[in-house]
Write a structure and sequence with these properties.
The complex is a heterodimer of chains A (114) and B (114). Chain A has 114 residues and is an all-beta fold. Chain A has no helices and twelve strands. In chain A, strands 2, 5, 6, 10, 11 and 12 form a six-stranded mixed sheet that branches. Chain A has a four-stranded antiparallel sheet with strand order 3-9-8-7, with no helix packed on it. Chain A is globular, with a radius of gyration of 14 Å. By secondary structure, chain B is mainly β. Chain B has no helices and eleven strands. Chain B is globular. Chain B starts with a strand and ends with a strand. The chains are: A mainly beta (114), B mainly beta (114).
């Protein structure tokens, strides 16, 4: 079955330190990959996407993500975390086989301590 | 605001009640979605409509009944719900399948079934 795994329920990092939020997926073919962020009492907001090309993609608010095809991973990164980055982050994968299904992970809560 | 508006923001209903959730978008998107968000679980795709035609019904119980009168409006009619149906219900829209530009989400309706 197709799935997206975010192995960490929560990631804690000190402000100013680099952060990584992990995502691996089990989807055949060459899927499209996404990261979304959810702030309290809000819906999900699009952060960045990977379709093809350079394995390092840049998105909103200084975030970037690294695609690794051999490991089927798409980890979210930021060189220097801010307290305001504290939120729930979702990895999502859209199979390139037609249809309207996008598969989401369970989310990882990022907590940035001042 | 993201361009996708959901009402009400909060809803408490008894198991014998009938209520409806509403979603509206004026982004010119052709596809609209209902997702269920429960804590520490992947987002669950419930229904997808493309140009107001249903394209996905992800084995959702019949106590949830969607309606899409046009490409801008989506409803979720609720009746005889169970306490385990308590969750955040998210509406989203996209241009085509959403693979190129991702989804735009509303802020959700927090549903509590008592």
């Amino acid at each position: 079955a197709q799935s997206v795994a975010q192995p960490e329920d929560q990631v804690n990092v000190a402000e100013g330190n680099p952060l990584t939020v992990k995502c691996t997926y089990s989807v055949s073919g060459n899927p499209y990959l996404f990261w979304y962020v959810q702030y309290p009492n809000r819906g999900l907001q699009f952060l960045l996407k990977y379709i093809t090309g350079d394995n390092l993609v840049k998105g909103s608010y200084g975030f970037e993500a690294e695609f690794n095809k051999s490991q089927t991973s798409f980890h979210l990164k930021k060189p220097s975390a801010l307290v305001s980055d504290s939120a729930l982050y979702f990895c999502a994968v859209s199979p390139n086989t037609g249809g309207f299904k996008t598969i989401f992970g369970a989310g990882t809560r990022l907590f940035v301590k001042a | 605001e993201t361009g996708v508006t959901q009402t009400p923001r909060h809803l408490v209903m008894g198991m014998t009640n009938k209520k409806s959730l509403k979603c509206e978008q004026h982004l010119g998107h052709n596809a609209m979605y209902w997702y269920k968000q429960s804590a520490k679980k992947p987002l669950e795709l419930m229904f997808v409509y493309n140009f107001k035609e249903q394209t996905e019904n992800n084995s959702v119980p019949s106590r949830f009944s969607p309606e899409c009168p046009n490409s801008s409006h989506l409803f979720l009619h609720l009746h005889t719900l169970q306490p385990e149906d308590s969750a955040l219900y998210l509406c989203a829209s996209s241009q085509d399948t959403g693979r190129r530009k991702g989804y735009t989400f509303g802020s959700g309706t927090r549903l509590t079934v008592v």
